[in-house]
Amino acid sequence: MTVLLQKLSECIEFGKVNKAAPYPPDRRGMDGADEITQQLISEGVDPQRILTEGLMPGMERTGIKFRENKIFVPQVLMSAKAMNTAMVHLKPFFLSGAARQKGTFIIGTVEGDLHDIGKNLVSMMVEGNGWKVVDLGVDIKAEKFIAALREHPGAVVGLSALLTTTMMNMERITKAIKAELPATVVVVGGAPVTASFCGQIGADGYARDPQGLVEFLNNLL
Ligand code: B1M
Questions:
Q1: Which of 23, 45, 153, 211 could form a Cys-Cys staple with 40, CB 3.0–4.6 A?
Q2: 126 alpha carbon to ligand 1 midpoint, in Å?
Q3: Which of 79, 96, 113 is the last residue of a domain?
């Protein structure tokens, strides 16, 4: 079973979705995340173990390689696709409460900003690391973040911005969230955002990339 979990983590790392998938070429015809996850479930392996010993280590290696520029966006997307395929089989267990997630992370691209490629990558990596992700989408105003927080008390909030103009909206959103729900942890990121900007606007954390965000979130636990 340990061997299968190891194989599953490699499917995530190398983006092997299922047996029929032609990618990556050196794994053509081999079982992918889809088949291996189903096999593990049918053998009675705890879904929590499948997540923490199979999926998460694979996604973590992907995050580290992406940070080190050893792989690029398309490879991360393939890892995320493999991850999502496996999660389809695990979700019923999480929804029924048979398996635990680390916490809830609410993310959105801030008001005025329509860029979502990086935000989606971040969402997938955080989900792949065992967090429940509530992705609000793009052009999100403070009120929508606050409404989501009321629905998911105690969640961490992530704000993404890609424009030097819209990053300014992060301050208003952070302040509005803190005014309503002061204990909320707010983390910011996106190409123009910096750690010093994060400090200036009163956010709690800055992450440069998905792996940095995962590390920030895991440090909160
Ligand atoms: Co626009 N765009 N764009 N764009 N766009 C940029 C950002 C720009 C740098 C291009 C340029 O001029 N060189 C420029 C911004 C300049 C600035 O503000 N200084 C720009 C502009 C000006 C605009 C418009 C204003 C253009 C116009 O209409 N005149 C317009 C704005 C629309 C709006 O948002 N209101 C616009 C529109 C668009 C498209 C719709 C065409 C499209 C977006 C499609 C989409 O997202 N669905 C688009 C794109 C694709 C880009 C570029 C080319 C690529 C952005 C991207 O996806 N990068 C971009 C130029 C560039 O970067 N080369 C550009 C890949 C992605 C993986 O990286 O998003 O940085 P990134 O995410 C990273 C990190 O930043 C981090 O992790 C991710 C993965 O590593 N990260 C977080 C992101 N969010 C995080 C949150 C975290 C932590 C980490 O914690 C919460």
A1: 45
A2: 20
A3: 96
Binding site membership of 67 for ligand 1 (Cβ less than 6 Å): no
Shared domain for 115 and 68, answered yes or no, is no
* pLDDT per residue of the chain (221 residues) written in tens, 0 to 9: 799 999 999 999 999 999 999 999 999 999 999 999 999 999 999 988 998 899 989 988 998 999 899 999 999 999 989 988 998 898 888 767 677 789 999 999 999 999 998 898 899 889 888 899 999 999 999 999 999 999 999 999 999 999 999 999 999 999 999 999 999 999 999 999 999 999 999 999 999 999 899 999 999 99
Cα-to-centroid distance, 47 and ligand 1 (Å):
36
Q: How far is the CA of 138 from the centre of ligand 1 (A)?
A: 12
User: Measured from the CB, is residue 210 less than 6 Å from ligand 1?
Assistant: yes
Output the domain CATH number for residue 209.
3.40.50.280
| Distance (Å) from CA 92 to ligand 1 centroid | 34
Q: Are residues 88 and 120 in the same domain?
A: no
Long-range (24+ apart) CB contacts under 8 A made by 189-197 are 189/122, 189/158, 189/159, 189/160, 189/213, 190/115, 190/118, 190/119, 190/159, 190/160, 190/161, 190/162, 191/118, 191/162, 192/161, 192/162, 192/163, 192/164, 192/167, 193/161, 193/167, 197/167, 197/170
